[in-house]
Design goal:
Elements: H1 11-23, H2 28-49, E1 60-67, H3 74-94, E2 97-98, E3 101-102, E4 104-111, H4 116-128, E5 133-135, H5 140-152, E6 157-159, E7 174-176, H6 181-195, E8 201-205, H7 209-224, E9 229-234, H8 243-251, E10 256-259, H9 263-275, E11 282-285, E12 303-308, H10 319-330, H11 338-355, H12 360-369, E13 372-374, E14 378-380, E15 393-399, E16 402-409
Parallel strand pairs: 1-4, 1-5, 5-6, 6-7, 8-9, 8-10, 10-11, 11-12
Antiparallel strand pairs: 2-3, 12-15, 13-14, 15-16
Helix pairs in contact: 1-2, 3-11, 4-5, 6-7, 8-9, 11-12
């Protein structure tokens, strides 16, 4: 099907046509009056009161989303994409306007596969696709690798990644949607030391910038709390054979496991512990285990806990309304932080309006200045480095197949 566009011509073009017509023999008095009127219209347009047909705002504004949409973290990445999609659908139905012109928002999604190299390729493709901002990525290592690509083009990057390095790249384009790992590490170490007290601790990580950095911080906090870490080990983020590690934990009589492994990895570790009968342990993880899939581990060990800067949607006043809409649209509940990307899209749309433009750099400046209304979490505002102000970390326990809030703080 062929699509035809109606051509809108600015007053300046009409003035030029009038000049040619006058040269062709129009009565001088009539020609002079017409030229004066056209010049006045052109002056108004140049002063900002111009015609809608002369708007520099495009008909469609493209929003990039880069998340792991395949592989072990696909459920989390799809949830983050769903949040953006839901917000864009609502904004388009409401008639999104920029600088007096109705605009269609379009989501352009890329699968970063939770891999830094794939993330860079996804970022390069989104730049080619002409997106004005990107809501991505989930994994810190991917966000950090992709950030300079967006930064070179002045494209704002709103990431749920938590490694502090993301906002230490000296780029004006990095914006974090949640609290960072510095606060989360303190929460992990403090809770493990004071609420899960034991004589022997293990700290395990997945080898990624997110996982290792967070685990190192938790281990430091445990040391500050005078707790002994008898097992400290890094894996990669795909390991699922924990037979040897289970035996090592048993030999060291570990009673508390502090870990930043992914949910599927912790499930595999717990199965290995179950096989050798070492289940009188408590496990405290990062936010990558606070998922619906972890419900399968309920009851396998003495306690399952997770720390997360991604607070549950149901903890917020308008969370129930969001959950109802989300479940209606996607036929399943959120898996992770879709409400944060939903909010991010609304705040981004406000920044686009405030900029009155589809220019990424203008949108970035607006984001740095904005105190944006976030429909679920309340507000999003950032400091000069792009750190979210007032971000909090919660501690949750798995009970009856559901993660329940134990405590939360922005000061741990």
């Amino acid at each position: 099907m062929t699509t035809f566009k109606r051509e809108h011509r600015c007053p300046a073009a009409s003035v030029q046509e009038g000049t040619r017509e006058g040269a062709g023999g129009m009565d001088r008095r009539r020609w002079g009056a017409r030229m004066a009127a056209l010049a006045a219209v052109a002056t108004l347009a140049a002063a900002g009161g111009g015609l809608a047909g002369c708007s520099k705002v495009p008909d469609t504004i493209r929003i990039g989303v880069a998340q792991p949409l395949s592989g072990n973290l696909a459920a989390l990445g799809q949830d983050l994409l769903n949040g953006v999609t839901m917000a864009v659908d609502e904004l388009n139905r409401a008639g999104f306007m920029v600088d007096g012109k109705r605009v269609t928002l379009e989501v352009v999604a890329q699968d970063d596969r939770a891999d830094p190299a794939a993330g860079k390729a996804a970022a390069q493709q989104l730049v080619k696709d002409g997106v004005v901002a990107v809501i991505g990525h989930l994994n810190s290592g991917v966000s950090i690798e992709a950030a300079p690509i967006y930064g070179e083009k002045g494209i704002p990057q709103l990431a749920i990644s938590t490694n502090p390095r993301f906002t230490q790249l000296n780029l004006p384009t990095t914006f974090r949607l949640v609290a960072n790992d510095t606060l989360q590490a303190k929460a992990m170490g403090s809770f493990a030391a004071t609420q899960l007290s034991h004589s022997s601790y293990a700290v395990l990580d997945d080898g990624t910038p997110y996982g290792k950095g967070l685990a190192d911080g938790a281990a430091q906090q445990l040391a500050a709390e005078k707790k002994q870490v008898t097992v400290r080990q890094s894996f990669d983020d795909r390991t699922t054979d924990f037979t040897a590690m289970a035996a090592k934990l048993q030999a060291a009589n570990v009673g508390v496991i502090v870990t930043t492994l992914n949910d599927f990895q912790v499930l595999a570790l717990l199965e290995a512990l179950k096989k050798i009968g070492h289940t009188r342990v408590s496990v405290l993880g990062g936010d990558t285990i606070k998922t619906t899939d972890m419900a399968r581990a309920d009851g396998l060990v003495d306690g399952l806990y997770a720390t997360s800067p991604v607070l549950e949607a149901r903890e917020f006043i308008t969370g129930r309304q969001f959950l109802e809409k989300y479940t209606t649209q996607f036929k399943k509940p959120p898996a992770y932080g879709g409400h944060y990307t939903y909010d991010a899209m609304y705040v981004l749309s406000a920044a686009i309006k405030q900029a009155g433009s589809a220019d990424p750099q203008a949108i970035g400046k607006a984001l740095h200045a904005i105190n944006g209304y976030a429909p679920v979490t309340g507000t999003m505002t950032w400091d000069a480095a792009g750190e979210l102000r007032y971000g909090a970390v919660g501690v949750y326990s798995l009970r009856g197949g559901r993660w329940e809030m134990r405590m939360r703080s922005d000061r741990w």
